[in-house]
Amino acid sequence: MKYATIFSYSNDKTAIAEARPRHREYLAGLKAQGKLFAAGPFPDDSGALIIYDAASREEVEQIIAADPFRQAGVFQSWTIYPWNQVL
């Protein structure tokens, strides 16, 4: 099942810039494993939309917990929505 997750970022632009390369490498690994459908930040860098392909909400929470942005405190909050792809 796919899960659309909306993230809000911290205002710490330095933390975002420092963690972004590791975060993107992590996302690339998820994509290679078939666990990531799409991802990208909002233009103002206030947050992002990430669509995971996971077996459960709990798996999504585990994926988020291991994300370098979460570990660096960039992810301040998030909301997970089960999502049905139509097109």
Characterise the protein shown here.
This protein is an alpha+beta fold and 87 residues long. The chain has helices at residues 13-32, 57-65, 68-71, and strands at 2-9, 36-41, 47-53, 75-83. A hairpin with a 5-residue loop joins strand 2 (36-41) and strand 3. It has a four-stranded antiparallel sheet. The chain has a single domain (2-83), classed as Alpha-Beta Plaits. The longest helix has 20 residues, at 13-32. The two termini are 15 Å apart. The chain is built from three helices and four strands.
Can you tag this structure with a few keywords?
alpha+beta, Alpha-Beta Plaits, 87 residues
| CATH superfamily caption | Dimeric alpha+beta barrel
Which stretches of 5+ consecutive residues score pLDDT under 50?
A: none
CATH topology: Alpha-Beta Plaits
Task: Provide the succession of SSEs.
Answer: EHEEHHE
CATH class: Alpha Beta
Number of alpha- plus pi-helical segments: 3
Biggest sheet features: 4 strands, antiparallel
Number of DSSP-assigned strands:
4
Tally of discrete structural domains: 1
β-strand amount? 25-35%
